[in-house]
Amino acid sequence: MNYYNQYNPAFFSEAALKKQAEVKKIKKLSNLIGAVYIILWLVPTVISQMILNVAKLFGAERLLAPIFSDPAFLMVYQTVVSILIFTLPFLILPLGLGKTVSEFAAINKPRKKMFIPFFFIGTGVSAFANVVTNNVAAVFENFGIHFESPQIDYPQGIFGIALSFIAVAVTPAFVEEFATRGMVMGSAREFGQGFAIVCSSVFFSLMHGNLVQIPFALIMGMAIGYAVIKSGSLVTGMAIHFVNNAFAVFFTYLTETVSSVTLQNLIYLAYLGICAVLLCIGLLLAQKRDPSLWSLEKSENILTFGEKLKYFFLAPTVIVSLGLTVIDCLSMISFG
Questions:
Q1: Distance between the two ends of the chain, CA-based, in angstroms?
Q2: Which helix (DSSP H) or strand (DSSP E) does residue 155 occupy?
Q3: Which residues of the chain have pLDDT under 70?
């Protein structure tokens, strides 16, 4: 062994040092994102427990029961909690990385003539991601495995419908896009656009915490992430997210008012047909306006794409995040 080379600083090549620096930066980023997810997972439980403890302190448990069973109140509560958990915890990322919020999640105009194509593409993908998810669930159900998801009681009346759209469509479109495509994807973009899309999509799917929504959210996360990067704006992602969730609210109220299953299916098929047309138009327009439609900017990193993913997902807080999601998912599986 050449001991001179072993202890000589020149023994460590510039490439090796750069690789070590990249590994360190990815581990720091992933641990911060994992920590944010853990906070995201804990906060709703902590808030609920705090409310319960205060109610017990003042002997008001019975008063709270009817309030927390009121669908209108739950929509307001969901809106407030969503705003809190998808904004404040994510500020850890720019603070921990020495950046500003605007560097990751600037609300700027989409690139010229690129909003419509990618809005159409994202909306089209959302419809068919739903179909894929439903078919996967159906396959498991044939084997007696049932995936449950949290059920939402929607309030009635014009005011109730307005609350539902605000809580389920408007608020998530803004705050979840700010959190995932803004802060998470934005902070990961220095390691490559593809890497940033994958990481943000995985965490977007994990946030949903159940096997019914995770596959759908993963596909949608990929589509929205790509649309945001190619259009150059979070606004595109917010618009796609809003339309997808708004349709979910619309279809929920539709099933309550239209008793005919045949008519419901016809409306749903019409929706899929419209989304298919939008997807085709979007792809044609995007291809015409952006010759690099199917390519992403390559990063100048030493690490390969696979190495980046390995170091990212093996970070301690990310492993804990995955474990928490597994626990959530297992608790919502029934057999028989």
A1: 64
A2: none
A3: 1-12, 336
Neighbouring C-beta atoms of residue 57, cutoff 10 Å = 8
Q: What are phi and psi of 322, to 5 degrees?
A: -65, -40
| DSSP structure string for 6-26 | HHSGGGS-HHHHHHHHHHHHH
Q: Mapped to the 3 state alphabet, what secondary structure does 69-94 carry?
A: CCHHHHHHHHHHHHHHHCCCHHHHHH
> Residue 111 carries which side chain, given as an amino acid letter?
R
Burial per residue of 20-38, b for 16 or more beta-carbon CB atoms within 10 angstroms, e otherwise: eebbebbbebbbbbbbbbb
How far out from the chain centre does Cα 253 lie?
24
Query: Over the stretch 246-255, which tens digit does the pLDDT of each residue have?
Result: 998 998 888 8
Q: What is the CA radius of gyration of the chain?
A: 23
pLDDT at 5: 52
pTM: 0.89
